[in-house]
């Protein structure tokens, strides 16, 4: 049984239905849709904002690469074992009912697919894959973790550790930690995700823009749109004169241009809309 929502939120949901019903809707999602799965967001209410490792910093030194992989090893298990929540399930149900044509996510946790969504574009990549930035060889995250454990047998995962949506955990990195080198070329592994300060592959950006061009309405959920990749797509939708509905707990960078803004958790609203 669904919990009753605030009347202001209910009114926003009704307005959203009026704008979205009967249209080819594209969804843009961010970290806020995964918080109910136990994965924190970057900028949610009450969170301490900390600077993530940038792409340039990752490339700058072996020490930074070791820092990333040691901390990611500690946090990855929490993401790998997370389960889809009502936000993911609601969007999957909407797709299966023909109410949602495509989903573009800024998340890297893979929970949309695990919930049953099929037409998903992962704008920032996926955390369960690892790529060598020197020869482009891919390995699975499981294989990477096995290599880390083999080379660092004393490394353990802490059950209670603060971490970010990309699995970066707050731990003290052992001084003797070594990051595995590429098995093919001896190069540097990185997760197959877009770091802060790294460019999204051009082909992926063009694919996202094409999906927005083919849409008739846009639904944005669980993102403040602080990252420009998502904000640009919303601006594109408004340039095309598409109705835009935003569901987010807190302000977003598109509040002034959206048609409907619902200030509430994504899960509760999406459940009311689609389940």
Molecular structure report:
By secondary structure, this protein is α/β, with parallel strands linked by helices. The chain contains 9 helices and 9 strands. Helix 7 packs parallel to helix 8. The termini are close together. The model has no long low-confidence stretch (mean pLDDT 92).
Portion of residues in helices? 25-40%
Domain count: 1
CA radius of gyration is: 19 Å
* Percent strand: 5-15%
Features:
single chain, 275 residues, alpha/beta, Rossmann fold, six-stranded parallel β-sheet, three-stranded antiparallel β-sheet, 9 helices, 36% helix, elongated
List the helices and strands and how they pair.
Blueprint: H1 7-20, E1 25-29, H2 55-60, H3 62-80, H4 86-96, E2 102-105, H5 111-115, E3 120-122, E4 125-132, E5 138-140, H6 141-151, E6 189-193, H7 202-213, E7 217-221, H8 228-239, E8 244-247, E9 260-262, H9 266-274
Parallel strand pairs: 1-2, 1-7, 2-3, 7-8, 8-9
Antiparallel strand pairs: 4-5, 4-6
């Amino acid at each position: 049984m669904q919990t009753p929502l605030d009347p202001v939120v209910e009114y926003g949901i009704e307005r959203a239905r009026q704008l979205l019903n009967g249209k080819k809707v594209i969804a843009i999602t961010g970290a806020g849709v995964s918080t109910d799965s136990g994965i924190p967001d970057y900028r949610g209410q009450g969170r301490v904002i900390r600077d993530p490792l940038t792409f340039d910093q990752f490339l700058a030194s072996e020490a930074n690469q070791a820092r990333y992989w040691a901390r990611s090893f500690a946090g990855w298990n929490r993401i790998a074992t997370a389960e889809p929540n009502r936000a993911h399930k609601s969007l999957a149900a909407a797709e299966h009912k023909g109410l949602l044509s495509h989903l573009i996510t800024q998340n890297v946790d893979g929970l949309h697919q695990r919930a049953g969504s099929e037409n998903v574009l992962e704008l920032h990549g996926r955390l369960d894959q690892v790529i060598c930035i020197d020869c482009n060889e891919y390995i699975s995250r499981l294989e990477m973790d096995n290599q880390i454990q083999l080379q660092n047998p004393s490394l353990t995962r802490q059950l209670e550790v603060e971490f970010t949506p990309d699995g970066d955990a707050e731990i003290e990195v052992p001084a003797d930690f070594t990051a595995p080198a590429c098995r093919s070329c001896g190069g540097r592994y990185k997760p197959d995700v877009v770091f802060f300060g790294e460019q999204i592959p051009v082909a992926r950006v063009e694919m996202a823009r094409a999906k927005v061009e083919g849409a008739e309405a846009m639904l944005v959920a669980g993102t403040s749109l602080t990252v420009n990749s998502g904000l640009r797509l919303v601006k594109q939708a408004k340039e095309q004169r598409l109705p835009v509905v935003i569901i987010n707990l807190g302000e977003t960078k598109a509040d002034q241009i959206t048609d409907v803004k619902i200030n509430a958790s994504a899960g509760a609203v999406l459940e009311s809309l689609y389940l």
